[in-house]
Design a protein that fits this description.
mainly alpha; 312 residues
């Protein structure tokens, strides 16, 4: 009964977006896929500004996260005023879960980009489908899948190749990227369930609002009034992050978590190819490239396999 009620609520939410509702189902799915792909591009660009900022200003990753959430909160409030819409929260547990885990994931992600490289931070952040598969093995017994666990082993091998490409001792700073992947898995899970009950603005309002409060409460000593140079990097990093978050939340209303996971994995290739050109990072080693390829392969296989199960 709960699933049926959630599906009915999801249908009501989707019917409110009349412009999209009049499009064919295939066109709606394509729009959702495009939104997620553009979201990943925006997330990647936001991390570029963190790397560039290191050359000119001294801004802590926590400040970047706080500014992104505050800016996002103001944007969502503006959208709500323009549309003259009220918030319609139905599941506070899902909204809070999405906000808390997203806050943790973004902070660890930005920290990873700041202390490692653009490629390593982005690639390790994209390990979240692997951790979702691990969680489902222990929590959802009916979804246990030997092939999925094999793909987890493949991804773990890829992770190790990135953590310690040329030596047996891993770079401890890369654990920030790994932590971002673990927490992002729970954030995406909360988002995928929450979209059945809430519209885009409701999810983002609570995510940005609670995220701002959490970041200020934990890192208020690293937050200050920025000068023009600092504001420049904060604004563009936060701006692309907010647009990406908006597109991601919108996209997951029209595609499954499986489709979204495959599309999101495209950031692995972006990070591996563009990092040395854009952020002047050292290029990935041969083992690093192999590791990125293994993680990408595991993500795609996990997504395709689950897609076949859903359609069978």
């Amino acid at each position: 009964m709960n699933v049926k009620r959630a599906d009915r609520q999801h249908s009501v939410i989707q019917s409110n977006t009349s412009a999209v509702g009049r499009l064919p189902r295939k066109a709606v799915v394509w729009l959702g896929c495009l939104a997620i792909l553009l979201a990943e591009i925006c997330f990647y660009i936001s991390t570029i500004y963190i790397r560039w900022a290191r050359m000119e200003v001294d801004v802590d990753p926590a400040f970047f996260v706080f500014f992104r959430f505050v800016l996002g909160f103001l944007v969502v409030c503006g959208v709500l005023l323009i549309k003259r819409r009220d918030l319609k929260p139905r599941r506070y547990d899902l909204l809070a879960g999405r906000a808390i885990f997203n806050c943790m994931a973004v902070f660890c992600f930005y920290k990873a980009v700041a202390v490692t490289s653009l490629a390593e931070g982005n690639i390790l952040n994209m390990t979240y489908p692997v951790f979702l598969a691990v969680a489902s093995w222990f929590v959802l017994k009916e979804q246990r899948d030997g092939v999925a666990i094999a793909m987890v082993a493949v991804a773990v091998a890829g992770i190790w190749m990135i953590l310690a490409p040329e030596q047996m001792t891993p770079n401890i700073n890369n654990l920030w990227g790994l932590a971002s992947g673990i927490t992002a898995a729970f954030a995406i899970l909360c988002l995928n369930i929450s979209r059945r009950f809430h519209d885009t603005e409701t999810i983002l309002f609570y995510m940005f609002g609670l995220g701002s409060v959490i970041m200020f409460g934990l890192f208020h000593n690293r937050i200050f009034w920025p000068n023009p140079a600092e504001f420049y990097y904060l604004f563009w990093c936060g701006g692309f992050g907010v647009v990406g978050q908006y597109l991601l939340t919108l996209g997951y209303r029209y595609v499954t978590a499986v489709e979204g996971g495959v599309l999101s994995s495209s950031r692995i290739l972006m990070a591996a190819v563009l990092g040395p050109w854009i952020a002047l990072d050292p290029p990935l080693t041969v083992t690093g490239w192999i590791g990125a390829g293994l993680i990408l392969t595991a993500n795609v296989v996990l997504a395709v396999r689950k897609s076949r199960k859903l359609t069978s």
